[in-house]
Amino acid sequence: MTRAEIAKEIANQLGMTHKETELVIDGFLDKIVDCLIEEEKLELRGFGTFYLKKQEARIVRNPKTGERIHQTSKKVPKLRFSPRIEEYINKLV
Predict the structure, then answer these.
(1) Domains of the chain by residue range
(2) Beta bridge partners of 50
(3) Which of 1, 2, 43, 52 is the right S-S partner for 75, CB 3.0 to 4.6 Å?
């Protein structure tokens, strides 16, 4: 499902215009990115927590050439789902 499809469905459910819904979605996503840039956790109770995790420097391999490359450490964005969401998904799958 794309961002536009989500905006369309939410707009229909809430009686908002597509443009209004897109603005809300954009604002929400911008806030997630802002929190990650500031290295803050963003907790949405009952859904999950967005956070950064440090990935240590390591040696990786280029799958095309087989060349070994030194990758520096970096911060990787993560989403840890709440137990409620994990339980719900596991019941359905």
Answers:
(1) 1-38, 41-93
(2) 42, 79
(3) 52
Do residues 75 and 67 touch, judged by C-beta distance below 8 A? no
Answer whether 48's CB lies under 8 Å from 77's CB. no
6, amino acid identity: I
The CATH code of domain 41-93 reads 4.10.520.10
Instruction: Give the pTM.
Output: 0.78
d(CA 74, CA 66): 22
Residue 87 has pLDDT above 90, yes or no: yes
Task: List, for residues 38-50, the tens digit of each pLDDT value.
Answer: 999 999 999 999 9
Name the burial class of residue 73, with classes exposed (0-12), middle (13-18) and buried (19+) by CB atoms within 10 angstroms of its CB.
exposed
